[in-house]
Design brief:
- This protein is α/β, with parallel strands linked by helices and about 280 residues long.
- It contains 11 helices and 9 strands.
- Helix 3 crosses helix 11 and helix 7 packs across helix 8.
- It binds guanosine-5'-diphosphate, potassium ion and magnesium ion.
- Belongs to the TRAFAC class TrmE-Era-EngA-EngB-Septin-like GTPase superfamily. FeoB GTPase (TC 9.A.8) family.
Length: about 280
């Protein structure tokens, strides 16, 4: 079984793996590049589990080597579970990657790490509400205090099984969503068998993601790169911005909507700023 840890830089991915695996952590490089690859093998409940520490990323765009490594690993190594490690003191920014990971439609759980700091800051969050709105299990953890790690492992190993019942139900705003569905419909007429979810392909085409187009051309043996061009045009006419930006902004809109319902900054954060 393979569990991959994905998250922004400095959220505690390595600290969590270290706390779970101790000295078993092996450091190498990703094939062909100098980006560090850390892996550990642990025994848990009679299973041998490989923990992979993916490079820290803010997004899964094709623009940086770290993001391409993460993305390729997810689709090509097909981990049994992705643990998205989040810095709980910076949820809004971190959830952007979460939404992108959800779009891969892989089994996913969230480790809400630095939860010790989160509590110190006096923040409050409705964990069940967050989990329910995302359709993803959420475990608060503190790598430093070694809290929540046992539960994280337990949930990780049942994550592929749980995943079959899950449907990540986040949807973009109505107009964007219907354009995505229209591209999916077109894809269904051309694309029969691929490791990539059709909805993910549709979104990448709308984002003019050249790296995805290349991969798809190789995998499908056919060029679908212009399939979404009309949809892109419609989106850009409507929103007056490039489709990639429109999709990104829509994701932030979704995140804000969720956080309004489940997250509260209290106590130490209740100072007021007076404008002069
Ligand atoms: P990575 O880049 O995601 O691998 O993050 P690291 O594991 O290197 O951790 C980044 C920093 O955050 C280090 O200084 C860790 O000691 C610290 N850190 C990691 N997890 C926690 C946590 O749960 N609580 C606190 N307070 N600090 C943490
Ligand atoms: K680091
Ligand atoms: Mg690290």
């Amino acid at each position: 079984m393979n569990i991959a840890f994905a998250g922004n830089p400095n959220v505690g991915k390595t600290a969590i793996i270290n706390a779970i695996a101790g000295s078993k952590l092996k450091v190498g490089n990703w094939p062909g590049v100098t980006v560090e690859k850390k892996e550990a093998e642990v025994e848990f409940k009679g299973k041998t589990i490989t923990l992979t520490d993916l490079p820290g990323v803010y997004s899964l765009s094709p623009y940086s080597i770290e993001e391409r490594i993460t993305r390729d690993f997810i689709f090509e190594q097909d981990p049994d579970c992705i643990v998205n490690v989040i810095d709980s003191t910076n949820i809004e920014r971190n959830l952007y990657l979460t939404l992108l990971l959800m779009e891969t439609e892989k089994p996913l759980i969230i480790a809400l790490n630095m939860f010790d700091e989160f509590k110190k800051l006096g923040y409050e969050i409705d964990l069940e509400g967050l989990s329910e709105m995302l359709g993803v299990k959420v475990v608060p953890t503190s790598a430093i205090k070694r809290e929540g790690l046992q539960k994280l492992m337990e949930i990780s190993i049942s994550c592929p099984k749980e995943h079959k019942k899950l449907d990540y139900k986040l949807r973009y705003d109505g107009f964007l969503e219907s354009e995505i569905m229209d591209v999916v419909k077109k894809l269904k007429q051309h694309v029969i068998n691929t490791r990539y979810p059709l909805r993910w392909i549709a979104i990448k085409l709308l984002e003019r993601d050249e790296y995805a187009k290349e991969k798809l051309k190789k995998e499908l043996g056919m060029d679908i790169s212009k399939l979404a061009d009309e949809n892109i045009k419609r989106i850009e006419e409507r929103f007056g911005d490039d489709a990639e930006t429109v999709l990104a902004e829509s994701r932030y809109g979704i995140i804000n909507g969720i956080l309004k319902k489940v997250f509260k900054k209290t106590k130490k954060d209740d100072y007021t700023i007076t404008e002069k």
